[in-house]
Amino acid sequence: MHLGLIGLGKMGGNMRARVRAAGHEVVGYDRNLEVSDADDLAAMVQALPAPRVVWVMVPSGEPTRATIADLEPLLDSGDLVIDGGNSRWTDDTVNATLLDQRGIGYLDCGVSGGVWGKEYGYGLMVGGSPANVELAMPIFDALRPEGPRDEGFVHAGEVGAGHYTKMVHNGIEYGLMQAYAEGYELLAAKDLVTDVHGAFKAWTRGTVVRSWLLDLLVKALEEDPELERISGFTEDSGEGRWTVEEGIANAVPMPVISSALFARFASRQDDSPAMKAVSALRGQFGGHPTKAAQAGPSSGTGSTS
After folding, report:
1. Pick from 180, 183, 173, 182: which is nearest to 215 by CA?
2. 190 is in which domain, residue-wise?
3. In terms of domains, do 145 and 195 share one?
């Protein structure tokens, strides 16, 4: 099978290599022509036999919307576009409607696996029609992990369902990471425990908290036992916020994911305005001592907008 792949960064470049290793032909396009197989989008499309399948793997939001809009006049009825980035699920209906005007199919595909996906495969969550999913299935089979298809791939529902499922996946990821992080901090704070790294490594086999995320934390601690080489400043890419917003819209309590998201906000503050207010109140009602202020970032940093 032939695939056009737009965006050959960390994820896209590795995906190109994995699909090629499975025996398929990939024509990749990237604005960085040093890694690109085609000089421009038109050349990439012309190199593909019909019906064309084009996978978009560029940053979410306007870059993805603009890329799909640029593709639309280059493709023909019966072709298929797959958005494999971290787009917000509400964008999928807009993209699908644009392409459907000319008979071009659309799938949204949430992709999990990060930089390790080239070796181990990617978890895939797809939204769209069964016919379009069937057309792209050889590519999905090449990208997913080895083993039973339903242990690495799901046709989650209609257009938008793939990215919605990936959004929730990432929200869960926020909560899991925060739980491991809080456990790490408590173990590191207690003098009684002298081998924090060893404790986490022991949990990687036979315990109910074993996971790939735990394996990655063990790897990070092996490389930097005290995590001294990195800052605690932690960004969020948007999916955690969207998950919490959806929880509110659907009256679904999400205390763990919300707390994990807010912990990232707190990580960007050298001095919290909220805790300044608490300190001031303690001073006002109880005469408790306060500490002098130090300059530094407060709330409002790290917006994904």
Report:
1. 180
2. 167-267
3. no
Task: Locate 2 and state its tokens.
Answer: 């032939």
Low-confidence ranges of the chain (pLDDT < 70): 294-305
The catalytic position among 72, 158, 173, 246 is 173
Do 124 and 211 lie in one domain? The reply is: no
Residue range 219-268, pLDDT digits in tens: 999 999 999 999 999 999 899 999 999 999 999 999 999 999 999 999 99
173 is catalytic: yes
For residue 179 the two structure tokens come to: 């739980």
State the total domains in the chain: 2
Catalytic residue among 34, 72, 134, 166: 166
Considering only CA atoms, which of 111, 94, 191, 106 is closest in space to residue 145? 111
Last residue of a domain, one of 158, 175, 193: 158
Q: Are residues 126 and 101 in the same domain?
A: yes
Looking at 103, 129, 158, which one is the last position of a domain? 158
Same domain, 148 and 69: yes
Percentage of the chain with pLDDT > 90? 87
Which CATH number belongs to the domain containing residue 88 in this structure? 3.40.50.720
118 is catalytic: no
Specify the amino acid at residue 205: R
Strand partners, 126: 109, 155
Q: State whether 121 and 245 are in the same domain.
A: no
